[in-house]
Amino acid sequence: MAPTPNTQDMANAIRALSMDAVQQANSGHPGAPMGMADMAVALWGEHLRHNPANPNWANRDRFILSNGHGSMLIYALLHLTGYKLPINELKNFRQLHSKTAGHPEFGITPGVETTTGPLGQGITNAVGFALAEKLLAKEFNRKVVDVDHTIVDHHTYVFMGDGCLMEGISHEAAALAGAWKLGKLIALYDDNGISIDGQVAPWFIDNTAQRFVAYGWIVIGPVDGHDAVAVSAAIAQAKAGTDNRPTLIISKTHIGKGSPNRANTSKAHGEPLGAEEIKLTRESIGWSHAPFVIPKEVYADWDAKEKGKAAEAAWNDKFAAYKAAFPELAKEFVRRMKGELPKKFVQTAVDTVIAAHQKGETVASRKASQLALESFTAALPEMLGGSADLTGSNLTNTKSTPNLRFDALTGDVVTNEAGQGGRHINYGVREFGMAAIMNGVALHGGFIPYGGTFLTFSDYSRNAIRMAALMKLRVVHVFTHDSIGLGEDGPTHQSIEHAASLRLIPNLDVWRPADTAETAVAWTVALQNKSKPTALLLSRQNIAYIAKCDSAVAPDASGIDSISKGAYVLSEPADAGIKKKAQAVIIATGSEVQLAIAAQKVLAERKIAVRVVSMPSTTTFDLQSTEYKSSVLPAGVPRIAVEMGSTGGWWKYGTAAVVGLDTYGESAPAPVLFKHFGFTPENVADTVEKVLRK
Among 661, 685, 658, which residue's Cα sits nearest to residue 673? Predict the structure, then answer.
């Protein structure tokens, strides 16, 4: 029989590594990991199912440190349990190119499931993880007579603190978790009552237990967060629950536990303890070992390699039986967890774009998006849509994506007559929560999430969009009502600076298509963007289809058409009836492309030859070769940009003028606003003439 682990030494190993690493870096947050060490012993030592040798094992439990400033907790755990995170990486905490960044970063450190730093987003990501697990389990698990072919069956665990609960996004996420009855979601609240400014009581007086009961969660505790046995028992109780409700375990702890002079103070939160206090802490907790030295017996108590290997091996055997019984389902599960598009995707995309081109429909680009989605959602079962209470406006629903619903009593996913669950989520008025939940869904694997709201509300979800870009996640944001073209709702809803603002986010692909074909291409690119999120900016008002040569939409030898390069020559002077070399180039996006075409005709009547370039994606165009960019925007030819929004971003293209909008809008019908703000063919033509006269 294996010896009983020394749980106190296991916890103290975390405390020692945390205070040593923060001290060496002279930067960091030692208090949280020191306070949560016993909670970590309970979860990682007794319950967490994972394999250090394979951090990407599909059926592992997911662990998320939502209070990511306590990053040394997870780094210590990963190191101690056997992940490829050697002690030298802990010694290089917060240093350039180390795998132990100031906050946990997905894709950098093996075993880190999501990037956490902005408080509240970790717990919200966790809701996405748990939702993905529940939906995949419903879709893929099978039972044949007495044989249970369950291949998706894991928990999502979260550690979070006061800061996460103070952030409003935690309300959005927790409410949805309760509504969706995510019984495999277990959150452990590190209730230490301290934040950077000190004791939180004067400004954080929520009754957290009652708050989560109101959301429909099970609440356990408070328990003594420094009693690993008590915490472990609480986790076991949560796992044993049968009513499909998420669980909150309230764990009372002392920040900086073990530090004689810093425990229970904000001083322990965000600065090194100092050499003298570390010496006193070592004496207080009975830890006589030198900095970064862990005894072999403690490593042995923590080592999870053999246990993890056995757990994955057992699952592999189960999956082998599943594969024998359901070969096609098994193949599909592997494909989706790898994030690979089906082989038929390319043909689906080509057919969708060509059909849009041939039909040439006059519709709003939000409707054009729905038309493309009808095709893509039918072909890609991994597409999981939704809207923040604006489905009828965003048009993110399709025939293939019925609304996702859960049985009020059992919490099971409600299915239709064909046994299929819903694939369109009503997020409610929760834009930020929706965006961060989609990040969690994407991180889990098995789905490509997309969600809609008005473009002006991207301000609410912006930080989660930024996190998706930072983590290189395939998430699609459908933003409709993209300009003053939405009309009477007025400046509160009219997007002015939002397109320019989103284009500034590194690794975010932003598309503002001009018609049905461009919209279909934008969706094609978004679905192929395996390592970046996409924002689609779509109009409320109808946009006439703009004639274009067949080669603009027909794939070339590389499978890429000119639209998918972000910008292309839409119309030459000859198309407007003037046989002269272009004297100027009008660049336009979205609904303003038809305005540019109309201005081109006005200028042709004035004997001025103009090329029109449609630039649906500046972010994609900027990545093209110098040769291609020069072919679209030739040197020495004046450029004039047209977009109903902030002008700032257009000057980088060497524009001589921009017909844009650097003030807020007005409340009036769209045609009145277009004339009022100068978005008319005549004004664009006059602007081109003024440039040429100079």
Answer: 661
Q: Which two tokens stand for residue 257?
A: 């536990």
Number of neighbours of residue 448 by Cβ within 10 angstroms: 24
**DSSP string for residues in 632-668:** HS-TTS-EEEE-SS-SGGGGGGT-SEEE---S---SS
Question: Cα(257)–Cα(19) distance, rounded to whole angstroms?
Answer: 11
Residues with Cβ within 8 Å of 670's Cβ and at least 6 positions away in sequence, in order, are 484, 485, 486, 487, 541
Distance in angstroms (rounded) separating the CA atoms of residues 455 and 281: 52
- Cα 336 to chain center, whole Å? 17
Place of tokens 């389902």: 329
| Residue 559 pLDDT greater than 80, yes or no | no
Are the C-beta atoms of 366 and 394 separated by less than 8 Å? yes
Compute the distance between CA of residue 479 and CA of residue 451 in angstroms, rounded to an integer: 8
In DSSP notation, 75-96 reads HHHHHHHT-S--HHHHHTTT-T
Let me know: does 568 contact 633? Beta carbons within 8 Å. no
User: Residue 301 in contact with residue 6, Cβ under 8 Å?
Assistant: yes
Q: Return the closest-CA partner of residue 68 out of 139, 131, 118, 8.
A: 118
What is the C-alpha separation between 465 and 463, in angstroms, rounded? 5
Query: For residues 61 and 111, what is the distance between their CA atoms, to the nearest angstrom?
Result: 11
Rg (CA), the chain: 28
Task: Name 454's bridge partners.
Answer: 480
Say if CB 14 and CB 73 are below 8 A apart.
yes
Which of the following is catalytic: 105, 139, 382, 431? 431
- Give the burial string for 67-81 (b: 16+ CB within 10 Å, else e): bbbbbbbbbbbbbbb
392: its two tokens = 């009828």
Distance, in Å, from the CA atom of 127 to the CA atom of 118, rounded to the nearest integer, reads 16
Residue 314, Cβ density class (10 Å: 0-12 exposed, 13-18 middle, ≥19 buried): exposed
Does residue 283 carry a catalytic annotation? Answer: no
Query: pTM to 2 decimals?
Result: 0.97
Interhelix angle for 431-444 vs 121-140, to 10°? 50
Q: pLDDT tens for residues 260-314?
A: 999 999 999 999 999 999 999 999 999 999 999 999 999 999 999 999 999 999 9
